[in-house]
Amino acid sequence: MAKRRRDNQKVTQGSGWSLARGKQAPPSALRQSQPIENQRIVVRTEGRPGGKTVTIAQGFRLTDPDLKALAKTLKKTLSVGGKSADGKIELQGRLVERAVALLEAAGYQAQAR
């Protein structure tokens, strides 16, 4: 059943709520993963509040399920927590060298910055 918003646009239910006018998917939502050997991944660290360090691997051109599966494999192998979103994987801790080694072993072109 359709609902109406304040600005009188119809809202329908599908995979989440979206506007009936046909809002396009964001560019980060790929329909098909790109070949692994064509992806250049940059791995770097970033400081967070409270003195926490996060390792960020970005540049992935994978679908969301593929990115989540890769993040899960990295987190399990490195025994750390983390998350994946918007074409990047965040791992808790200072793990640049280990993450680069694992990504290169998987076939990605990874480099540390």
Plain-language structure description:
With 113 residues, the chain is α+β, with helices and mostly antiparallel strands. It has a single domain (26-112), classed as 2-Layer Sandwich (Translation Initiation Factor Eif1), CATH 3.30.780.10. It is 22% helix and 35% strand. It has 2 helices and 8 strands, in the order βββββαββαβ. The strands form 2 sheets. A 5-stranded mixed β-sheet has the order 6-7-5-4-8, with helices on one face. Strand 6 and strand 7 form a beta hairpin.
Mean pLDDT over the residues:
82
Overall strand count: 8
> How is the CATH topology named?
Translation Initiation Factor Eif1
Q: What would you call the quaternary organization? A: single chain
Low-confidence stretches: none
Question: How many individual helices?
Answer: 2
What percent of residues are in strands?
35-45%
Taking the alpha carbons of the first and last residues, their distance comes to 50 Å
CATH architectural designation: 2-Layer Sandwich
Rg over C-alpha atoms, rounded to the nearest angstrom: 18 Å
CATH superfamily: SUI1-like domain
Structural class: alpha+beta
Attribute tags:
single chain; 113 residues; alpha+beta; Translation Initiation Factor Eif1; 5-stranded mixed β-sheet; 3-stranded antiparallel β-sheet; 2 helices; 8 strands; 22% helix
Quick summary:
The chain is an alpha+beta fold and 113 residues long. It is 22% helix and 35% strand.
Task: Please specify the SSE layout and strand pairing.
Layout: E1 3-4, E2 10-14, E3 16-19, E4 40-48, E5 52-58, H1 64-78, E6 82-85, E7 88-92, H2 96-105, E8 109-112
Parallel strand pairs: 4-8
Antiparallel strand pairs: 1-2, 2-3, 4-5, 5-7, 6-7
